[in-house]
Amino acid sequence: MALAGCTGSGLSGESGSSGEGSSASGGQGASPLVNPDGTKPGLAAISSDEDVAAARGLISKLSTKGRGPKTGYARDEFGYAWMDTADGVPLARNGCDTRNDLLKLAGQEVRFRTGSDCVVVSMTLHDPYTGKDIAWKKAKATEVQVDHVVPLSYAWQMGAARWDRPKRQRLANDVLNLLPVSGSTNSAKRDSGPASWLPPSKAIRCSYAVRFAQVAEKYELSVTAADKSVMLKQCGA
Q1: What is the pTM assigned to this prediction?
Q2: Which residues contact 82 (CB under 8 A, 6 or more apart)?
Q3: Is the confidence at residue 7, as pLDDT, over 50?
């Protein structure tokens, strides 16, 4: 028995003991405007007029173009899931895979597999997309999945098909582009951009748009005109 691992954006099996060992505590959420590298947990709402204006300014800088074909896309083009060896991103090569790094970062009352300070076996997650708390255990692994804020297939269609493999691996494992969330909500999102899907919690939608923009800016990705328009609307434009 063990903490379930991930396939794609979800969680699936990993070998090891399921015994509860040490514990750790995480936070509930940080505004993306004060978390530009994604190393703080969660996603807090943006509310002040000054911050909303800053959010619009960030989104306004994004370039736009049409979404290209999905021809040639495969998850493996971005490296194997949750690799710890994607150089150039926070938390790489720390001896713990990306998925467990994210669970530790975002979870509260985190408990690890006996003898491990990496493999998470239970936690409470505040899901930013729904605003609900999830009491997660490995026995119901898919209740929490790790979302790529900018979906990998979206990135592929917007230019990542022409990137070298190391850059694609960075995008897939960069904590700025990753959020542990409700599994069912993540499944509903699929590879949608903001014009087709937004978090159910309206309070977090401007923050989600900012996080999407931060990833696009960092990786020099364009977004579609429709996506940019919807992102701006979430922040009062």
Answers
A1: 0.88
A2: 5, 6, 97, 98, 99, 100, 146, 173
A3: no
